[in-house]
Amino acid sequence: MEARLPDPGDALSGVDMFATLEPEIRQRVVAAAVPRTYRKGQLLFVENDPGESLIVLRRGAIMVFRTAPTGERAVLSVMRPPEVLGEVSLLDGLPRSLSAEAIEDTTALALSRGAFIELLHLNPRILDAVMRSFGALVRRLTEQNADHVFLDLPGRVAKTLVRLAGDSSAPMVTIELNQSQLAEMAGGSRQSVNQAIGSFSSRGWLRTEGRRIVVTDLPALRRRAGMTDR
Fold first, then answer.
1. Contact 172, 104 (CB under 8 A)
2. DSSP H helical segments within 94-177, as ranges?
3. Whole-prediction pTM value?
4. Which SS3 state, helix, strand or coil, does residue 106 take?
5. Residue 3: what pLDDT?
6. DSSP reduced 3-state for 120
7. Which is it for strands 34-38 and 106-112: parallel, antiparallel or unpaired?
8. Could you tell me if 195 and 153 are in contact, meaning their C-beta atoms sit under 8 angstroms apart?
9. How far is 118 from 112, CA to CA, in rounded Å?
10. Residue 187 contacts by C-beta under 8 Å, 6 or more apart in sequence?
11. Which residues are bridge partners to 99 per DSSP?
12. Pairwise pLDDT comparison (34 vs 11), residue with the higher score
């Protein structure tokens, strides 16, 4: 039996899509959602599955990818709380265009499209929130496409690592991602990505520990990716 979250009033307060809504409306959204748990390595959905729900991440991490006819994966992003995925399905109701896999044990809230439409009738401002989230998705995909045009592979690897590190200000950041997954995200072969990682390691920017990558000089990676240092 699935238990409701203990504090529904605050469950969505940090989620950009819902942060501007009144607490009472957020409570309605949480009340209409169903808690979900996913084990590391478990698929949330695959391409062409029914696009029936919005997923709000509470804990863990999700890898979003597309699969080629040859079976190769192209990883588009790694999503972490308080991000959401599946907002496109809320708008068009069509099958999933992407696949999603938990790369850490993950907890989430699933809001069905039917529940969303019902909430929308009660408060149209929810649609504004979804449209903002959809715009952020388009911008992210546009930037990713530009990276493949303007950045060389080591630059893309560096930028991928910076994104995975998030907003951390710690001197060292551990990234739970193996080099095969990193190659899928950066859009290169594993051998080429391994060479880039080896180059970064020799410069003291990171080190590898089995299936982990420990970033030790995030500003250097940001510079290599052509990003403004903070």
1. no
2. 113-122, 125-150, 153-165
3. 0.69
4. strand
5. 40
6. helix
7. antiparallel
8. no
9. 10
10. 74, 148, 153, 156
11. 65
12. 34
Segment 35-76, tens digit of pLDDT: 999 999 999 999 999 888 999 999 998 989 888 888 888 888
pLDDT digits (tens, 9 = 90+) for 144-202: 777 777 789 999 999 989 988 876 777 788 888 777 888 888 888 888 999 999 999 99
Q: How far apart are CA 18 and CA 11, in angstroms?
A: 10
Q: Return the C-alpha torsion angle 42, 99, 149, 163, nearest 10.
A: -40
Per DSSP, 177 falls in state: -
Report yes or no: 205 and 216 within 8 Å, Cβ to Cβ: yes
Question: Are residues 97 and 147 in contact, defined by beta-carbon separation less than 8 angstroms?
Answer: no
Instruction: Give the closest residue to 40 by CA, choosing from 113, 101, 91.
Output: 101
For 7, phi and psi rounded to 5 degrees?
A: -130, 75
Peptide bond before residue 82 is cis, with ω within 30 degrees of 0? yes
The SS3 assignment for 85 reads strand
Residue with tokens 């979250």: 5
215: phi then psi, degrees, rounded to nearest 5: -80, 125
Strands (E), 5-145: 34-38, 43-45, 53-59, 62-67, 73-79, 84-85, 99-102, 106-112
